[in-house]
Specification:
Blueprint lengths: L8 E6 L3 H9 L6 E5 L3 H10 L5 E5 L9 H9 L5 E5 L7 H6 L4 E4 L4 H12 L3 H7 L4 E5 L2 E4 L3 H16 L3 E4 L6 H11 L7 E5 L5 H9 L1 E4 L4 E4 L2 H4 L4 E5 L6 H13 L1 E3 L6 E3 L3 E6 L3 H6 L5 H7 L3 E3 L10 H16 L8 H9 L5 H19 L1 E2 L5 H6 L1 E2 L11 H10 L4 H23 L4 H8 L3 H10 L2 E3 L5 E3 L8 H6 L5
Parallel strand pairs: 1-2, 1-3, 3-4, 4-5, 8-15, 8-16, 9-12, 12-15
Antiparallel strand pairs: 6-7, 10-11, 13-14, 17-18, 19-20
């Protein structure tokens, strides 16, 4: 945020709700902001017209007040570059789509997590005006603080049109595509475009989870003793009237697939431990990167479930078939990540852009984002993309460089790699992935006062996963409350890892 050091950031808030105002004052950056409140939407318009305009408008819609949305029409004429975040009650959730159409960058339904509002504010407020105009593209559609859909190629424009039709149809959808290609993003887009957009969107990962845990996560549980019955609701109930997204459906245990069939056929399910059925009203979206025919042949996927889902199937193309979007994605990810890490964004050299356009990106957008993280830290000094006969080879030889007296910020592991010669893009990705993961966990733990359950919720991972990662990175907190993190070499990174037989 160094670019904003010479200018006071102004935030105009149209709200009297403590749930909206409280997170603002608790954000560390807010001490340097000028936060003003307006009595009404029309008061906010007068302030914008009067001269000193805000950098961000936070508009809270009172329950049952749809007239305040008219402010968005006026603001689009007065200040088309002014980012707006709208919050509203569940009763007015149907206005979410209208608010987005009128120009709101973000719409949050109360009650929301404070972290959601903080993330939205940081995303739209902490970006200087000249960068905002450069970063915002008509081809980019924001679906949340960290999720966006790019429709800059014919294939994704067709994909978005399909999403509109499927959102209106409100039928089960099967989304197929390679790992990292954007199946999750498409599911969120379908939800956003549907009449259910004002209700929850919940995701369940079916891979690498024991059957009992996944069943409890989806269906909940019911335990009855002689004195009382303890009911725990699962994601199916929490997503009532909203959307449930089942990722990697072919990895779901067969016993649970049978229960999912009951949801699709009858609109009911039974919690484990209970014989009674519970009605449920959700839009079910499923995704998989597996070969469906093979999964059915290997008895990993029920054939009747596949046919029930595949009546409406969408194929997400890999990034190598959407090369028109690579430059847009690179620039957008650079601005997003530079805000996240508090660093000035780097410009991509023509050589890097050319190599990126030629690369096959086997892990798709996920791999591209990891590459941008690395480039943000090292730039051209730390990454040299060697010219070769084809794009895939060009991206395989990413090596540390730099002249004498100008050592790039690449870390100890990279210095070792620099001495031993070129390293692979995968090794660099492993390195920056571990670094980013470690930093995110450390930030969450410090923010929650080392409350690991709260940190797991903030990171949106399971408690067990967080404990594993804390142990993996040897993260400890001292008696004084200071977090210490041992430097950990990513598995499979460097010659030492290979000698020790560590797998990536």
């Amino acid at each position: 945020m160094a670019e904003n050091a010479t200018e006071t950031l102004r935030l105009l808030v149209v709200s009297r709700e403590s749930a909206v105002l409280r997170p603002l004052w608790s954000m560390p950056e807010s001490s340097s902001w000028q936060i003003e409140t307006a009595a009404s939407a029309w008061d906010a318009i007068e302030r914008v017209q009067s001269g000193v305009a805000p950098h961000l408008l936070l508009l809270d819609l009172p329950r049952g007040d749809g007239d305040s949305l008219h402010i968005l029409r006026w603001l689009r004429r007065l200040r088309p570059d002014l980012p707006v975040i709208v919050t509203c009650s569940p009763e007015d959730a149907d206005k979410k789509k209208e608010a987005t159409r009128l120009g709101a960058q973000e719409v949050l339904i109360r009650p929301f997590e404070e972290a959601e509002l903080e993330s939205a504010i940081r995303q739209h407020l902490l970006l200087p005006g000249n960068e905002r105009s450069e970063a915002v593209s008509e081809d980019i559609e924001h679906l949340g603080p960290d999720t966006f859909f790019v429709s800059a190629s014919p294939v994704t424009q067709k994909l978005r049109a399909q999403a509109e039709l499927l959102a209106e149809a409100d039928v089960p959808v099967l989304i197929l595509g390679e790992s990292g290609s954007g199946k999750d993003t498409l599911a969120r887009l379908i939800h956003k475009l549907s009449v259910r957009s004002g209700f929850p969107f919940l995701k369940a990962k079916c891979a690498d989870m024991p059957a009992e845990l996944l069943e409890a996560e989806l269906l909940g549980s019911e335990q009855t003793s002689s004195q009382r019955t303890i009911v725990t609701q699962g994601k199916l109930e929490h997503a009532e009237k909203g959307t449930i997204f089942l990722d990697e459906i072919a990895e779901m245990p067969l016993t649970l697939q049978a229960k999912l069939m009951q949801v699709l056929q009858e609109g009911v399910f039974a919690r484990p431990g209970s014989g009674r059925t519970v009605p449920v009203d959700v839009h079910l979206l499923a995704a998989s990167s597996a070969n469906m025919d093979r999964a059915i042949a290997e008895k990993r996927l029920r054939e009747d479930l596949y046919y029930r889902l595949s009546a409406f199937t969408v194929q997400v193309p890999p990034l190598r078939q959407r090369k028109e979007e690579i430059t847009i994605l690179l620039q957008h990810l650079m601005h997003k990540l530079s805000r996240h890490y508090g660093l000035p964004p780097r410009k991509f050299s023509p050589a890097v852009l050319a190599a990126c356009r030629d690369h096959a990106w086997p892990d798709n957008v996920r791999e591209l984002e990891t590459f941008v993280k690395r480039y943000l830290l090292a730039g051209d000094r730390g990454l040299t993309l060697g010219a070769a006969s084809n794009g895939a080879d060009r991206m395989n030889g990413v090596q540390a460089s730099g002249s004498k007296g100008a050592t790039p910020f690449v870390g100890a592991d990279d210095v070792q790699q620099e001495q031993s010669g070129p390293t692979s893009l995968k090794s660099l990705i492993d390195s920056v992935k571990c670094e980013a993961e470690r930093n995110a966990i450390g930030t969450a733990l410090e923010k929650t006062g080392w409350n690991r359950k709260a940190a797991a919720r903030l990171l949106q991972v399971s408690y067990r996963t967080l404990l594993y990662k804390i142990d993996q990175y040897h993260m400890r907190v001292s008696k004084s409350g200071v977090l210490s993190v041992a430097e950990t070499r990513p598995a499979g990174f460097g010659s030492e890892a290979k000698q020790n037989g560590r797998a990536s």
